[in-house]
Amino acid sequence: xMRLRGGAAAAVVLVFAVAGCKADTTTGSGGPEETGGAxxxxxxxTAAESLTVKGxxxxxxxxxxxxxxxxxxxxxxDCDTRDDILKRDLEDVKFTGGxxxxxxxxxxxxxxxxxxxTYRRGRSQVDIDHVVALSDAWQKGAKYWDAGKRxxxxxxxLNLLAVDASTNRSKGDGDTATWLPPNKAYRCTYVAAQxxxxxxxxxxxxAAEKSAMKKVLSGxxxxxxxVGGNPTAAPPRFHxx
Length: 241
What we know:
With 241 residues, the chain is an alpha+beta fold. The chain has helices at residues 43-50, 81-89, 134-138, 147-154, 165-169, 187-200, 207-218, and strands at residues 13-15, 22-24, 33-35, 91-95, 102-107, 117-120, 126-130, 160-164, 225-227.
């Protein structure tokens, strides 16, 4: 099982000689796997080229509630999605009452900023980012989905990443054409993750977005495409407004 970034397991990093990009292939449970064949096969770039191009639909009607209650336990492991991702992405994790509620951890080498960030519950400097922002998804197909698919996207580990809160706030609902992590070494991995989510959920991209994706991934032609995460439909007991 391959994850987007570090965890308790040992990391194997493939460093590409172009564009300062590297593919993070840290292993661990709960996160997306990588696939795509040998280095040089360009699986992420190939997937980006296959994405459907359309114009951005109006944001009219978007509300967070259309994607269900935040951090719903769609994988039925009795822990909410936020704590699942904190457990996956933080080091030195400590819990409050059991093994779900994360009270402390360290985000070592935050993927967006490159700095170490300490997480303390109630005083958190760590966000759980939707790699493909929900508002962006809404404007590129999700407004036409049923609630089960929207809830699945909002809670899919493939689309979630623990990151430095202050850096994340600069992203807003930006796509690849409008925002990339300041940490240039993570950009190939980040864009590959956006491509993976959009491909999995059949979201379209704008022409500018696709061009930006291809520009980044052309600089790291061996970048693999993450796969895995949860099914694309939440269990029927979950509902959205």
